[in-house]
Structure formats: C-alpha cells, structure tokens
Amino acid sequence: MIAVRGYQDQRVVVLGLGRSGLSAARSLRAGGADVLAWDDGAAGRAAAEAEGFALRDPTEKGALEGVACLVTSPGIPHLYPAPHRAILAAMDAGVPVDNDIGLFFRSLAQSDWAMLDSPPRVVAITGTNGKSTTAALLAHLLSEAGRPVQLAGNIGRGVLDIDPPGDGAVVVLELSSYQIELARALTPDIAVFTNLTTDHLDRHGGMGGYFAAKRRLFAEGGPDRAVIGVDEVEGRFLANQMAEVPGDDRLIRISGTRLDGPGWDISTRKGWLSERRKGRQVASFDLRQMPGLPGAHNHQNAACAYGAARALGLAPRVIEDALGTYPGLPHRSQRVAERGGVSFVNDSKATNVDAAIHALSAFKRIRWICGGLADPAELAPLREAAGNVAKAYVIGREAEAFAVALGDLPSEVCTDMATAVTRAAAEARPGDTVLLAPAAKSFDQYDSFEARGDHFVAIVSELGP
C-alpha cells in the first residue's frame, strides 16, 4: 500500500466506494488522515462501514466544513454532462477535488529513495484503444528482462494498492481520460499516447475536451520521455508540442507507416517493427510472428511498449524475445478455442467502432458477432471495414437497428449471445474465425465488457470438439 501523504490529521471525504474509492480511503487512513466516506449506493456504504470508515453525505448542509479535500472515483462525472451534486458542493465550498491518481503521484516518492542506486520509475500509458495491451505488454517485457515491475491503474491493482517500489523498480500505469482529467498531480517519468478516436464524448463535452484530458498527462506531467502515436492529427500535434528542437530524442514517435526524420522513430509498416534514430535503422524484426499480437492494431501496441522499454534501457533483442512469449490479455484479440479448423476469438474490449475496425482487419474470413449499446448513425465506417466478414451475427436490445446500419453486409439478427455463437459456429468452415468484436458498449445486456466476453467464452466451451 502507498500511504497518502499531506493530509495527516486533516479531514478528507472519499466519494464513490468501489475498488479505487475504498483503496484511496485505506491509503488516506494509513497516512494519518481523518477519512469520511460516501457512496450513493447502499452496498458501497456498507462495505466502507465494515472497514470502520465513518459515513457522511457531502451534499448535506455543512458536511464539507473543515474538509481539506474531496477524493472522487473516476466513474463519477465532475464536469460533463453535469457534475455530481457532491462535487458541485465541493466546488461551491472551495474544497479541492482530487482522485487516487493525484494522491498516488504526490505520495509515491519515499525518503529512502535518495539511498537507492536506481530510483523507481513510473510509465503512464493512455489513449483510446490499446492502452491495456500496451501496459500489460510493457510489464511483460520488463518482467522477462528481470526488472521488478508492478502493473496498476485502470488495469491490475489500484494505484494506491501497490507495494512501495524499490531499487530499479518500474510502475506501469494504464490511465483513462477520466483518471487523468481530475488528477492534481501527474509526474510520470515516461508518458505514452497510443492513439485517439471518438469515445467518451458525453463525459468530456466533445472531442476537444476528450483530447485535452489525455493531453494533461504530457502538458501537466512534464515526462522525461514521451512515446506518442502519430497516425492521428492529435498525436502529431502532441508530438510537435513535446519536441523542443527537430530531432529531440526525448520524443519517440510511433506509426504504422515509415517515418523519416532526424529523431527517434518506431514504425510497424506491413507488420515489421523498425526502429530508427537520427535517420539510421538500429533494429528491425517481424511482428507477424508474435502469436499474442495479431493484427496491425496490436503491432502498434507492440511498438508503443517497445518504445517505452527502449526508453527504460532494454536492448532490442531482449525486447524481441519477450514479445514472442507474450500470451495476450483476456477480451483483447484473445484466441479462446479452435474447433474443426475454426478459430474463436474474444475481442469484447472492442467497445467502439475504431477498435472493431482494427479487429476486423486482423483475420481473413470472419463470422462476426457484433452489437450492443451504440448509436446506429456512428456505425457507417464498419461497412467499408467489413471486407473480411462472411456474415455478421448481431446481438443486443437494438440488434435490428444495428443490422440495418451495416447496410448490404450479410447479417442475421440473433439478439442474444448464445444464439449468435451457435449460428456462427454452425455456418463456419475450416479457416474461418468466429470473432466477437461488438463495436458497442455492453450495458444493454451485460454489466461490463468482461462479463460479455466471459459469456462468449463459456458458450464456446460448451460447443464441444
């Protein structure tokens, strides 16, 4: 546990008592804060009371008097589409609002770090798609190289639940826009930006607000090195903002096409990773041979992780060998079974159109299970990307509207997962891939994309040999 510093003998209110909220409450208490807790749900309040935390509704009159800080969970809106009533009350009362990420960065450094040969380093990874895979992959590379590493944030453990890192250790954080936007302290040693596509626009008031939230990791954090995907204009803008001079090697640019410049570039053109520094190639190898990283989107993830690993001092050959042993993450291009020459792949994390497009490009002949909570007006790009799709099997409460949005693509309205998997498996031929890549959020039928993916895997397991 990382004990939160700076609030000893001060009163702090924690709002939202899920994983990150309870973790923050414990760490604040360990640092000597007087912690009050609140959750709009009875279950969250009961969990806090069971751990000995006093409850206080911060929206009640006078509840924020004498409070030094309100710490909120990432899922609670603080600006758009409207601030939660408790956060609005804190703003009106002049009480600073923070989150567990801000508490982590202000509390991580320990007094004994001055005695370490190699002080711990933090790598923070953000972007719309691929940040989980990039974070897990980087942790895998470091572990295979014998470096002590902990994975936390939006993946793995809560940031305040990790052990205080020791000599030469690395903390790898996956950070969402929700987490970055509100954190009052952001000081990673290395910051990674994978890409930016349309997502979470209601929460950030549009695309500009969404990008601004991501950009804070670089603008506010001032990392020693930045690894930035530049295949979208926002990434190119961010890279330009980070470089002080042409060829500034504090910036590592990542692209799916070849980059020619005076700086430090990593490209994945046609599946080959190529590292160039000051116009000279220093490493090159075939990513298509890596079984846990299928498709161009995973090649970009590999390049981002490779760039961060290089910034941490790992040699290209060490990274190449470790990439070959990466097993992949659940719900992200996860190959779960093969039946009669038919592969079954769980990419339930493809919760938006762009992520689904990447998944569709990774396999040759696809029986595509798709659908969920989505705006049919935003699905048009899927039509052009579905060249490898033999047929779509559409699930979700609005499956019929989703199928109509796919245009002339052969499709079948299945509504539920069991029907979709059964029909796709029955019609698949050797060499086909039955792919769950919904292009939509799961909340019309499932509590999370993980629950949706787990259901897919369970049904596939029941199909038999």
What does this structure look like?
Helix content is 33%, strand content 21%. It has 465 residues and is α/β, with parallel strands linked by helices. The protein has three domains: 11-98, Rossmann fold (3-Layer(aba) Sandwich); 111-323, UDP-N-acetylmuramoyl-L-alanine:D-glutamate ligase (3-Layer(aba) Sandwich); 334-461, Protein-Tyrosine Phosphatase, Chain A (Alpha-Beta Complex), CATH 3.90.190. It has a nine-stranded mixed sheet, with helices on both faces. A hairpin with a 2-residue loop joins β13 (272-277) and β14. α5 (131-144) packs across α11 and α15 crosses α16. The two termini are 46 Å apart. The mean pLDDT is 95.
Q: Which fold does the CATH topology of the largest domain refer to?
A: UDP-N-acetylmuramoyl-L-alanine:D-glutamate ligase
Separation of termini? Answer: 46 Å
Residue share in β-strands = 15-25%
Oligomer: single chain
Largest sheet: 9 strands, mixed
The CATH class of the largest domain, by name, is Alpha Beta
Q: Give the full name of the CATH homologous superfamily of the largest domain.
A: Mur-like, catalytic domain
Quote the average pLDDT: 95
Structural class: alpha/beta
Summarize the structure.
It contains 16 helices and 20 strands. The protein has helices spanning 19-30, 42-50, 85-93, 100-107, 131-144, 177-182, 201-204, 207-219, 233-242, 296-311, 316-323, 353-360, 381-385, 399-405, 417-427, 449-461; strands at 11-15, 34-38, 54-55, 67-72, 97-98, 121-126, 149-153, 170-174, 190-193, 225-229, 251-255, 264-267, 272-277, 280-286, 334-339, 342-346, 366-370, 389-395, 411-415, 433-436.
